[in-house]
Amino acid sequence: MKIYLTRHGQTEWNLEKRLQGWKNSNLTSKGREGAALLGERLKTVDLDMIFSSSSMRAIETSKIITRGRNIEIKPEDDLREIHTGKWEGNTLQDVEKLYPEEYYAYQNTPHLYKPNANGGETFFELQERAISVINKIIDEGKYQNVLIVTHGVTARVIMAYFENRPIEKLWETPHIRNTSLSLIEIDGEDIKIPIYADASHL
Fold first, then answer.
1. How far apart are alpha carbons 18 and 40 in whole angstroms?
2. What is the separation of C-alpha 1 from the centre of its chain, rounded to a whole number of angstroms?
3. pLDDT for residue 117
4. Which residues does 37 contact at the CB level (< 8 Å), separation at least 6?
5. Largest CB tally within 10 Å, which of 21, 64, 67, 85?
6. How far is Cα 146 from Cα 137, in angstroms, rounded to an integer?
């Protein structure tokens, strides 16, 4: 089984360096273009299904990728971005000023990050819900090629899971650009990652 994994297209809040989380921001023209280019790259892949975060930026990215193809898009709440509560909609600079200790942990010690004041979730909670979706897809055993359309941090925790990388080292993973492509190949207990956050199509 092959799991293709991507992050949604660039959004207005990405440009403004605002935390999006469960809130939404519209795709930019560059974001829509990136999704179209990824769709072109994937046109020879016989995708059985797209499982997308239910956030509109991911749904729109999925629709652009599948334009002209008859591929079902299944929204999944548990593929949404990490929930950062009160931080969402604020710039990273403002969050750092308002919540210095929590923000430091978020950026530097993710395994110790506890969103006590902002009302969000931990990286462990994010990984647990995202991987539950992936494992359900695998356990159904009826797909050969699926595309997961999700978010930057969610994609990182998914990749970390399949790499056996601890949350403590989450930020040591390669940067996952908007509409970059990763590939996880699963054959029983054998897992290979031949493509990781590749953006050559952009």
1. 29
2. 19
3. 72
4. 179, 201, 202
5. 21
6. 9
Neighbour count for residue 193 (Cβ, 10 Å): 14
Bridge partner list, 4: 147, 183
CA distance linking residue 192 with residue 181, whole number of Å: 15
Q: What is the pTM of this model?
A: 0.96
Question: How far apart are alpha carbons 187 and 171 in whole angstroms?
Answer: 27
Question: Side chain identity at 116, as an amino acid letter?
Answer: N
> Angle between the 152-163 and 123-140 helix axes, to the nearest 10 degrees?
70
Residue 173 tokens read as: 């993973």
Q: Are strands 145-150 and 181-187 parallel, antiparallel or unpaired?
A: unpaired
Per residue in 62-108, pLDDT (tens digit) is 999 999 999 999 999 999 999 999 999 999 999 999 999 999 999 99
Whether 26 has a pLDDT exceeding 90, the answer reads yes
Euclidean distance between CA atoms 72 and 116, whole angstroms = 38
**Cα–Cα distance, 14 to 158 (Å, whole number):** 21
Mean pLDDT of 2-30: 96
Average pLDDT of the chain, as a whole number: 96
The answer to whether 181 and 195 have CB atoms below 8 angstroms apart is: yes
DSSP string, 116-167: TTT----HHHHHHHHHHHHHHHHHH---SEEEEEE-HHHHHHHHHHHHT--G
Q: Are strands 190-198 and 49-53 parallel, antiparallel or unpaired?
A: unpaired
